[in-house]
Design goal:
The chain is of the alpha+beta class and 228 residues long. The protein has eight helices and seven strands; from the N terminus they run ααβααββββααααββ. It has three domains: 3-74, Arc Repressor Mutant, subunit A (Orthogonal Bundle), CATH 1.10.10.10; 118-160; 162-220, Winged helix-like DNA-binding domain superfamily/Winged helix DNA-binding domain (Arc Repressor Mutant, subunit A).
Amino acid sequence: MDPTKLLDILGNENRRKIIQLLANRPCYVSEISSRLGVGPKAIISHLGLLEQAGLIECSVDEQRRKYFNIANNMRLEVSVSPYAYTVTLHDVPFDRDNKEEGPVGGETPQGEEQSAFFLKLSSRLKELKKRQEELAQMQQQLQAEYTEAMDRCLDSIEEIARNPVECELLFELLKDETTLATLCYNLRLHPSIVNANLIDLTKRGFIEYGIKNNQYYWKIRETGVENE
């Protein structure tokens, strides 16, 4: 699913609250309606959108009553900085039917063994939470370093660019390699103007192009700059 569409769906407070409830345990429509203080009709509408997005799924109990639970394991990330805005969605595969078995030949531990097994799992969970926190700190540090590097690159661009178009082109290519058509669209400039500046920057050794899927892609050079 398009992550920006998912972000729009989760922009509704009641839908976020529904996800929060279902993250704890499966719930019936009546339970969700009662907990949130929202009418069943509105809850059913929210559930329908969440189900279409693949976030939740519906099951039926022995009395033919519908209940809902989280369908998939996924991670939605939003990154905002002075130089970038990205929304990414990652599916995290998890096979509930292929979990690691207990320590005794695949049998469920009993008595003291069961207690020890639970404590071992609890310790493992704490370890994973700690690693998640460390990863989050590392991501924060990387974003700070990225922003600082972009600041310095922009200062450098002001020194080497010969006109405003070159400034904008170099900034676009710093973010990612791209095509002439995309550059023209982003900068709202005629292809002849963009192409002329790209050729000049290439001759001066700042950028280069490659071919991918029969298309020319422009990018910042990976080797040192060779000034005239």
